[in-house]
Amino acid sequence: MIVAIDGPAGAGKGTLAKSLAAHLGYPHLDTGALYRATALAVLRAGGDPDDPAAAERAARSLDTAILDSPDLRSAEVGAASSKVAAIPAVRAALLDFQRNFAHRPPGAVLDGRDVGTVVVPEAEAKLFVTASAAVRAQRRHQELQERGEASIYARVLADIEARDARDAGRADAPMRKADDAVEIDTSDLSPSDVFKRALAVIEAAG
Ligand code: C5P
């Protein structure tokens, strides 16, 4: 079974995807990490994340070692990742890897923005995980502080809103709830409540 989890930054998709994958015994792919790695490679090479040629080159020659870099999680790379993600050639370069990952037996859990709509629209279980922008910004702010990064709540909120607008507004594979996805708003739910709801959806699908 393929489990597709989409939603905006900070909604809790990553936490949910990891715990579902562990529970089901499936591998998990954080598809956002591929866009972050592409952005980081462009930045490290001194390039501009809005430059289609530089971004496509980085996506096509992605070194998997970069996926483990702690720099992937910085606010700068987060912002740059949604710029490279708006470039169709970058999305095309990363598609086969994601599809192949999803289709290996016995199944997989993938999380991102377009997993249920574009990467694997045939996924049996689809979730769209959201939360209010204020709650998501608060979570990100806390996470950055815990990692020792200087963080200002108002700036984190503005970054999240800008990223949401870019991700939902782009022409190619915009962030969108698939028609057959079940939406879970995590604003007032604990991670274990989110997990229980998601598992119920998966059990109903399988
Ligand atoms: O989920 P995360 O915040 O790590 O994703 C970073 C960026 O990668 C997102 O803002 C989005 O622009 C892009 N992305 C995407 N499609 C996906 C996953 C992430 O465009 N499936």
TrEMBL record:
Keywords: ATP-binding, Cytoplasm, Kinase, Nucleotide-binding, Transferase
Molecular functions (GO terms): ATP binding; dCMP kinase activity
Pfam families in alphabetical order: Cytidylate_kin (PF02224)
Cellular compartment(s): Cytoplasm
GO cellular component, one term: cytoplasm
Cytidylate kinase domain sequence ranges: 3-202
Binding site for ATP: G7, P8, A9, G10, A11, G12, K13, G14, T15
Gene3D superfamilies: P-loop containing nucleotide triphosphate hydrolases (3.40.50.300)
InterPro entries recorded: Cytidylate_kin, Cytidylate_kinase_dom, P-loop_NTPase
Record field: catalytic activity: CMP + ATP = CDP + ADP; dCMP + ATP = dCDP + ADP
GO biological process terms held by the UniProt record: pyrimidine nucleotide metabolic process
EC number(s) stated in the UniProt entry for this protein: 2.7.4.25
Family affiliation: Belongs to the cytidylate kinase family. Type 1 subfamily.
Protein name per UniProt: Cytidylate kinase
Organism: Thalassobaculum litoreum DSM 18839
Gene name in the database record: cmk
